[in-house]
Amino acid sequence: MLSPAFLSRLRRLLPPHCVLNEREDLLPFESDGLAAYRNTPDVVALPENEAQVAAILQLCHRHKVAVVARGAGTGLSAGALPVDGAVLLVLAKLNRIKAIDPLARTAVVEPGVRNLAISEAVAQHNLYYAPDPSSQIACSIGGNVAENSGGVHCLKYGLTVHNILRLRAWTIDGQLLEIGNESLDAPGYDLLALLTGSEGMLAVITEVTVKLLPRPERAQVVLAAFDDVAKAGAAVGNIIAAGVIPAGLEMMDRLAIQAAEAFVHAGYPLDCEALLLCEVDGINEEVSDDIFTVRKVLEASGAIEIRTAESEAQRLKFWAGRKAAFPAVGRLAPDYYCMDGTIPRGALPHVLKRISELSTEYGLAVANVFHAGDGNLHPLILFDANQPGELTKAESFGGKILELCVEVGGTITGEHGVGMEKIKQMCTQFATPELTRFHDVKAAFDPDTLLNPGKAVPELHRCAEWGAMHVHGAQLPHPELPRF
Ligand SMILES: Cc1cc2nc3c(=O)[nH]c(=O)nc-3n(C[C@H](O)[C@H](O)[C@H](O)COP(=O)(O)OP(=O)(O)OC[C@H]3O[C@@H](n4cnc5c(N)ncnc54)[C@H](O)[C@@H]3O)c2cc1C
User: Which partner for 112 in 25, 95, 128, 344 could form a disulfide, CB atoms 3.0-4.6 Å apart?
Assistant: First the structure.
């Protein structure tokens, strides 16, 4: 609980409409996109400029009050979940596009600017911002940086970290960090990369300089249907092996296809087990060559139906199904739990088969919708939170999927971050030496662990408690820690 004295100091820093602490005002902020995890914040601060952000951080630092940064709250790993006794620092009002430089192909934006708003603002210069999370109409660029977000286009154009140049960010004691620059190399440690994906644990981002790309001359998508999920999984690797780098390579399984078709009528074939959408872009001739190659590879990989979008309207229709797949699946059950793990592309057939076996074991249906080209899985586990025990069952099933990802050489997150959701699986992914270094980095920025405490990096004793700590050479790490 925050003291009345602290709250009145906070109110002195901001206009009255920028501090919320009435219950009905706080409820919209009790969760991010992972609504199964909820906690009503003690207070919400909505600064309108960078100076106010700095002042809030200084106040919190002085009074040893924790701070949870929040962008648009679309995160799927409870990264922006409020923490008891903390200020929820919402960056949504810092939403100005400060500069666009069409010659340098850059834009300088505040953290609350929506991802899609950047591409909309620079379209007049025939430019766009490449990373395109499916949540791009809503999610903020600050959140994208904090999560190192990806999307359909990231297979070819990279994640957020590959598409930003500079950041302005504030440490918990209110110091400004200006990091990154516009040249290819820079002296010093790469703090830009360190802050990207740091989930609000190291600093609060108040300005981002993004790279812009010229819109491709042509983009075309091929849709391929398969009678077997494993064949579709193998086709993904075959396309890349044939030398094509698609601008997007996405996959859906039967349940997802049927849900998407019923929702947006994208014209998908329904009598199949898996669909691949493969988009290529570039100059005209390059696209024609790639489409030819992709079709040949898909045929050889056993596709039962192949269609190439013949118009821009058809291309957008094919994508509409994929882009709406999450809400479409949301119509199939009262709740779903979206997982996010990454695996080597070659492991796709094995992992998909194993997920289907786990689905039978747990008695919970799964729809698979994912960035297949990146090996980034999004199994959506369907359940009903009103049925006692189903959420726990779904969480346990999800945990097994993440452990499977690690087992085949992948990772427990592709783009959604660790947050609160995957903190246990961090103990499976990393051993004590790596986790210790993560804590050292955190301490270098935030020795009092005031920024987003309890998220992303587990305490070592927690790993011991969960029985998930890596054992090296039969030596139990930290034998002095209590095991429960
Ligand atoms: C339907 C749907 C589809 C999605 N599809 C994708 C997808 O394709 N790819 C993908 O990568 N993600 C996807 N996501 C997840 C989510 O949209 C991304 O993680 C996004 O980057 C979160 O942005 P946000 O502004 O909502 O951040 P929030 O949810 O508000 O916060 C996310 C994290 O960032 C931190 N943070 C936010 N702003 C700042 C800041 N200014 N400074 C420091 N830390 C900050 C928070 O503390 C938190 O840890 C999807 C989500 C939904 C609901």
Answer: 95
Cβ atoms of 415 and 391 closer than 8 Å:
no
Can you give the pTM of this predicted structure?
A: 0.91
Rounded Cα gap, residues 325 and 153, in angstroms? 17
What are 6-15's pLDDT values in tens digits? 999 999 999 9
- pLDDT attached to residue 206: 98
CA geometry: angle at 356 spanning 358 and 246, to 5°? Answer: 130
Strand duo 86-90 + 106-109: pairing: unpaired
Instruction: Answer for the pair 417, 199: CB distance below 8 angstroms, yes or no.
Output: yes
* Per-residue confidence band for 484, with pLDDT thresholds at 50, 70 and 90: very low
Distance 10 CA to ligand 1 centre (A): 26
What residue type is 422 in one-letter code?
A: K
Q: What is the pLDDT of residue 413?
A: 84
Span from the CA of 61 to the centroid of ligand 1 (angstroms): 25
As beta bridge partners, residue 224 has: 276, 306
d(CA 237, CA 214): 28
- 481 CA to centre of ligand 1 in angstroms: 34
| Distances from the Cα of 75 to the Cα of 322, 424, 451, angstroms | 19, 18, 17
Per-residue pLDDT tens for 418-448? 999 889 889 988 999 999 999 999 999 999 9
Q: What is the pLDDT of residues 338-367, one digit of tens each?
A: 988 999 988 888 898 899 999 999 999 999
Structure tokens at 182: 């516009």
Sequence-separated (6 or more) residues with CB below 8 Å from residue 112: 71, 72, 91, 92, 93, 94, 95, 140, 141, 142
